[in-house]
Amino acid sequence: MVLNIMNICKKYGDKVVLKDFSLELTNGVYGLLGANGAGKTTLMKIIVDILKANSGKILIDGVDKNSLGDGYRALIGYLPQELGIYKDFNAYDFLMYMAALKGIDGKVAKEMVYNLLEITNLKEDAKTKCGKFSGGMKRRLGIAQSLINDPKILILDEPTVGLDPKERIHFRNMISNISRERIVLLSTHIVSDIEFIANKVIILKNGELVENETVENLVESIKNKVWITRVKAEEIKELEAKYVVSNMTQKENYIELRIISDSIPFDGCELVNANFEEVYLYYFNYKE
């Protein structure tokens, strides 16, 4: 399956949120990175057809999504940032209700829902009212509802918010496993989630596509831009005001800093291998 996003523009009044955005997606996991207000959620809402672009089009295998109607929406699974969950429903009833809204036969839906409760580790809480769920449990339930009807295009907006480290690892493994036969686009500020599972990383800045690359190539692109040095505690405030400091480690008699800079910040700094978190900082703190 090929999803082509072609020359999408979106404005809210005079504010341009997406500027001539174009992208081609095939089966696999795509991580969407951007600062708050970069246009990530707007892009996702346009893809899932709950928001209209001012111009541009989206094609699925060469066919305009608008001509597919309900057939296009049947291909979509979507987890928004804020998912409305009926607190008096239990987990099983909520998923059965969502399946009914998607027109899935009761017998088929029942088997599907039990499977989704299993893979999201909610089977033992199937009869627990959603109002009693923790934030992480509600997020897992949201992930489960996004997978109803086995969607071929899965759009996930901040899917791991509220999940503990073990749950996040389980989620990453699950997404990696199912991505072989579908397009997965996930937006998150937790860069490690993208680092471990994304085939490509899409960097969106001020409504424009800045990068569409592998994690390895993005890390390589800031080679020779990350420095390590030792400083005294009283120097920290001044250095933080002057440079992008990606990490600070307290040692016995000094503080070790990692600094992002195109050139050597000052004498005593040495080049060090970059990491993916520093890619994010380079694009959204350093290159402002």
UniProtKB/TrEMBL annotation:
InterPro entries: AAA+_ATPase, ABC_transporter-like_ATP-bd, ABC_transporter-like_CS, P-loop_NTPase. The keyword Ribosomal protein does not apply. Keywords: ATP-binding, Nucleotide-binding, Transport. It comes from the Bacteria. Residues 3-231 form the ABC transporter domain. The keyword Nucleotide-binding applies. GO terms for molecular function: ATP binding; ATP hydrolysis activity. It holds the Pfam family ABC_tran. Belongs to the ABC transporter superfamily. This is ABC-type multidrug transport system, ATPase component. It comes from Clostridium gasigenes.
